[in-house]
Write a structure and sequence with these properties.
alpha/beta; Aspartate Aminotransferase, domain 1; Aspartate Aminotransferase, domain 2; 2 domains; five-stranded mixed sheet; three-stranded antiparallel sheet; 16 helices; 14 strands; binds ligand F0G
Length: 459
């Protein structure tokens, strides 16, 4: 085993939340009642909740103290100004529009910049991001390197853009059809994989030549910065704060789901350098989210976010956060279980197509695996495969992604190393009886973002 420098948590525990323990029989009943969709489980029936790292963080004592300093004035809350300062100082973007969460910001930027028939290249899709682009009349194009679609590739920066793919799109459609390139740090659907500064700089040069903006999905930017520090030549001695700033400085604006990196249970924002775009966003936010100084958030939420942003770039925090994910991932690698490698920043992604090769993709191997994981020990994971990919709006057919994954997403500052051990043991048990597991059929399918509410039955 490779040696590790300890990532022990830079905090101690002041309060605990008690968990309900369930029996196998109770869990079988619960998952059947949930249509074999882990999104439809009641959280009190879950022992270890790895559905998402979104909004599930434990806040610090300082953030909780900040909640008490909430200024709930309708307009001009002091917490808004604190948040604006935190965003400007940490990320460098000039203008801030708070939103209730990331998709609120995606909605605004897509509405403002995308015209019908436009093309939006991105380093892999994200569910809500792509849907907002499509609803605004645009089409998403994947420009991530091929390695990102290969769970076994050990490329250190699987979030990188394939510059040839991007150049080809610009040649084919013309720069005027491309309102912006969407760059995510880290790339969620690829398994929490980072983009390198070097690659981002090349994307910047290429887009600048054509007058194309870069809009940064900065949901997990501190985690991306950590990987750059660990892996990219010349960055070992640079602070996370400095690398985060370097990333942001290469882009023109950003959408943020503060429910991840920024350690809050709710919140997000759109940040911009361009006054005209900002002005339009500030007009539109009033229609969809709330006044431009609260964007759908309470004052106390903005205060917790301002504090969380600063905590998120602390070296010890980010080392422990990513270290815990790596600890779990390494146990699974050692047990011979196929996972996406290198281990990502916010979770461990099981390769369901390798684990359940006897289940065809239209019988939802990842969805099936997630249901069995829940039944085994009450661990709730999330499908990130054909169900999440949805249907092609033109053909109406399933989109068959190359990655058919189950995501074990680790909330920040919530679970212990012993929890990681229990998770690894449960995955191994399910893996050992994988040949007996049968696929599923979809019996209810919503129109948008179907993975949230679809229902299934075993075949
Ligand atoms: N971008 C990325 C990369 C995300 O991971 C998410 C959310 C969003 C945008 C949307 O933000 O939820 O605040 O509206 N990801 C969550 C997840 C839901 O579980 O991966 P939101």
């Amino acid at each position: 085993m490779k040696s590790r420098s300890s990532w022990a948590e830079p905090y101690k525990i002041k309060m605990v939340e008690l968990l309900k323990m369930t029996t196998l029989q109770q869990r079988k009943k619960a998952i059947a009642a949930a249509g074999y969709n882990t999104f439809l489980l009641k959280s009190e029936d879950v022992y270890i909740d790895l559905l998402t790292d979104s909004g599930t963080s434990a806040m610090s004592d300082i953030q909780w103290a900040g909640m008490m300093r909430g200024d709930e004035a309708y307009a001009g809350s002091r917490n808004y100004y604190n948040l604006e300062k935190a965003v400007k100082e940490t990320y460098g973007y000039a203008y801030l529009v708070p939103t209730h969460q990331g998709r609120g910001a995606e909605h605004l930027i897509s509405t403002i910049l995308i015209k019908k028939g436009d093309i939006i290249p991105g380093n892999m899709y994200f569910t809500t991001t792509r849907l907002h682009q499509e609803l605004a009349g645009g089409q998403f194009r994947d420009i991530i390197i091929d390695e990102a679609h290969d769970p076994a590739s050990l490329h250190p920066f699987k979030g990188n853009v394939d510059l040839e793919k991007l150049e080809k799109l610009i040649r084919q459609h013309g720069a005027e059809k491309i309102p912006y390139v969407c760059i995510a740090t880290t790339v969620n659907m690829a398994g929490g994989q980072p983009i390198s500064i070097d690659n981002l700089r090349q994307v910047r040069e290429l887009t600048a030549r054509h007058g194309i903006r870069i809009i940064h999905d900065m949901t997990r930017v501190a985690e991306n910065a950590y990987f750059i520090q660990q892996r990219e030549p010349g960055y070992k001695r640079k602070s996370i704060a400095r690398i985060v700033r370097e990333i942001c400085d290469l882009t023109d604006g950003a959408t943020m789901s503060a429910k991840k990196d920024a350690l809050v249970n709710i919140g997000g924002f759109l940040a911009l350098n361009d006054w005209d775009v900002f002005e339009e966003a500030r007009n539109l936010v009033v229609v969809y989210e709330g006044l431009h100084t609260y964007g759908g958030l309470a004052g106390r939420d903005m205060e917790a976010m301002a504090i969380g942003i600063r905590e998120s770039i602390d070296q010890n925090h980010i080392h422990a956060r990513v270290g815990q994910v790596e600890y779990l991932g390494q146990q699974l690698i050692d047990a011979g279980i196929p996972i996406v490698q290198p281990i990502g920043s916010h979770g461990v992604f099981l390769d369901a197509s390798q684990i359940l090769p006897h289940i065809p993709q239209d019988q939802f191997p990842a969805q099936t695996l997630a249901a069995h994981l829940y039944m085994d020990a009450g661990i709730r994971a999330m499908e990130r495969g054909v169900v999440s990919a949805g249907r092609d709006p033109k053909t109406g057919k399933h989109r068959y992604p190359k990655l058919e994954l189950v995501r074990l997403t680790i909330p920040r500052r919530v679970y212990t190393q012993a929890h990681m051990d229990v998770i690894a043991e449960s995955v191994m048990r399910v893996y050992n009886r994988r040949s007996q597991i049968k696929g599923m059929k979809m019996v209810y399918e919503p129109t948008y973002l179907r993975f949230f509410q679809a229902r299934f039955e075993p075949v």
